[in-house]
Write a structure and sequence with these properties.
By secondary structure, the chain is an alpha+beta fold. The protein has 10 helices and 6 strands, in the order ααβαβααβαβαααββα.
């Protein structure tokens, strides 16, 4: 397509928007409202995914060593565990350090009780292990359980199983909900564009009768649909990003209820822009093609 012809189609699309200003406003409003609902849903879904990854990242295996294991043997076990496939890190925690951590976690009110154990420390040495993929946690725990010198392995199996079932359920619900909103947006917006084009069906029929090609007729409507999609996405995108950034700053970048880090505004804005503007343009083009098609049969 020549540049001059492309310019002509863009000008015609803009003229159509101004000529049918009320219908154009209605179309932009339909796009904006639908994409606003979709955008808010995406913000929740993306942060839910962030929470899922954060919680999964906190999973760890605590391997408690036997009381007769020496420091050299413990360090050798630590090296052996680090060499296991899928292990991200393994940290050796001596019994003295474990006792100090217990004192700090229990607080001052239990200090006198713990003083009696300071000389005869009952806390065993342990190795804290994290997996590269949280779903490998139970498999790594099973391998560590078979090693010599390991007395007990706490892998939180019940918590891990419930967590991953919950995360899978949240992910599946989020996908279904977002797909449903996308489908609803496509039909709602395309029907609105159809109403706009229906009011100009006589104009299309006349152009067809005087010899205009199908694509010559389509392009101004496609341009109009793209403009409607972009403007309809711009308004909710700006509102969502501004509102999210304000909330992000006020909460210090974390969700107060569970203190997990929220997605930074910049990263969220990039994902939202890709989805919202991409969907707005796609729906505008799709609605324009599907709507004009029936009126080209003259």
């Amino acid at each position: 397509m020549k540049i001059s012809m492309l310019g002509r189609h863009i000008r015609e699309g803009c003229k159509n928007l101004l000529r049918n200003s009320w219908m154009s406003i209605a179309s932009v409003g339909a796009v904006a409202i639908t994409l606003l609902i979709l955008g808010v849903t995406l913000v929740i879904a993306l942060n839910a995914q962030q929470l899922s990854n954060y919680m999964a990242g906190q999973l760890q295996v605590n391997a408690f060593l036997k009381q007769n294991v020496t420091k050299q043997q413990a360090l050798a076990l630590d090296a052996e565990i680090k060499a296991l496939p899928g292990v991200q890190e393994a940290i050796y925690v001596p019994k003295d350090q474990g006792f100090k951590e217990l004192q700090q976690s229990l607080g001052k009110e239990y200090q006198e009780v713990l003083q009696g154990f300071s000389k005869n420390n009952p806390i065993p040495d342990k190795i804290v292990v994290k997996a590269k993929d949280p779903k490998q946690t139970l498999g790594i725990a099973a391998e560590i359980r078979q090693m010599d010198g390991v007395d007990k392995v706490d892998d939180g199996k019940q918590v891990v199983d419930k967590l991953f079932r919950f995360l899978d359920m949240v992910r599946n619900i989020g996908v279904v909900f977002v797909v449903g909103l996308v489908v609803m947006a496509m039909f709602l917006i395309s029907n609105t564009i159809k109403i706009t084009i229906f009011s100009r069906r006589r104009e299309i029929e006349i152009m067809k009768l005087v010899g205009a090609t199908d694509w010559f007729i389509r392009w101004p409507f496609l341009t109009e649909g793209i403009i409607i999609g972009v403007v309809g996405a711009l308004v909710p995108f700006a509102l969502i990003v501004y509102g999210y950034h304000s909330a992000f700053v006020r909460m210090g970048g974390t969700f107060l209820a569970v203190a997990f880090p929220l997605i930074p505004t910049g990263a969220l804005a990039q994902k939202l822009a890709l989805v919202m503007f991409g969907l707005g343009i796609f729906i505008g083009i799709w609605g324009g093609i599907m709507s004009v098609r029936r009126f080209l049969r003259v």
